[in-house]
Write a structure and sequence with these properties.
Structural class: alpha+beta
Strand content: 15-25%
CATH class: Alpha Beta
Order of helices and strands: EHEEEHEHEHEHHEH
Largest sheet: 6 strands, antiparallel
Helix content: 25-40%
Shape: globular
Number of strands: 8
Number of helices: 7
Radius of gyration: 16 Å
CATH topology: endopeptidase fold (from Nostoc punctiforme)
Distance between the termini: 48 Å
CATH architecture: Alpha-Beta Complex
Length: 200
């Protein structure tokens, strides 16, 4: 596995003290998402992390194609293609998190490791089952979606959870006091909402 690359601070960003990142919770109409929703009674089954407000650069652990849920691992997600586009009724909540400049660059370094080694990762199905019973099951090459988000944050010294990253479920994100909800509704309408909000 490739090592982390050192990221240099851009000259024009040295004085930025605060950054914003975004976490998306979503509920599609796929069979796995419906099963998780049925079992947990939670409104959202999937978690993703994004570096921009428009969710243009967003990552998670999920299926790599449209139809096979068992071919899953680290992916870059797009809200207007793939599974999200297939299920236009997908509901979501977008959360904003303010972090320091140092934490932001830590996070960039961590995500770069995943990007450079994307084919080495797979979905942590056993860990997902373990989390349901509060049994931590970890692997450096396997994650489920909310476990991945929590791992990235922890490794970047962004400490917003009070339990091990391997046990973090979408509910822990939904009720987290450090996360500010900025949108709730259909994912397909999110960017339309943002444009209208900025014009208002």
């Amino acid at each position: 596995m490739k090592n982390r690359k050192t990221i240099k601070y851009p000259k024009d960003n040295k004085n930025i003290d605060r950054r914003r990142i975004y976490i998306l919770l979503s509920q599609t109409n796929t069979y796995p998402a419906r099963a998780i929703h049925f079992y947990t009674k939670e409104p959202y089954a999937h978690a993703s992390i994004a570096f921009d407000e428009n969710l243009e650069e967003m990552y998670s652990f999920a299926r790599r194609g449209l139809y096979n849920p068992f071919n899953a691992g680290f992916i870059r997600e797009h809200i207007d293609s793939g599974v999200f586009a297939r299920f236009s009724s997908t509901t979501c909540c977008v959360y904003e998190l303010q972090i320091t400049n140092k934490q932001y660059y830590n996070l960039r370094q961590e995500i770069n490791v995943f990007i450079e080694n994307k084919d080495s990762y797979s979905y942590n199905y056993l860990g997902l089952l373990g989390a349901a019973f509060n049994i931590p099951i970890k692997s450096k090459q396997r994650y489920f979606c909310s476990q991945f988000v929590a791992y990235l944050l922890q490794q970047s010294e962004i400490n917003i959870f009070n339990k091990d990253y391997s046990l973090i479920k979408p509910r822990d994100i939904r009720v987290n006091p450090y996360l500010k909800p900025i949108y709730q509704g259909k994912l397909a309408e999110y960017r339309i909402y943002k444009r209208k909000f900025k014009m208002a």
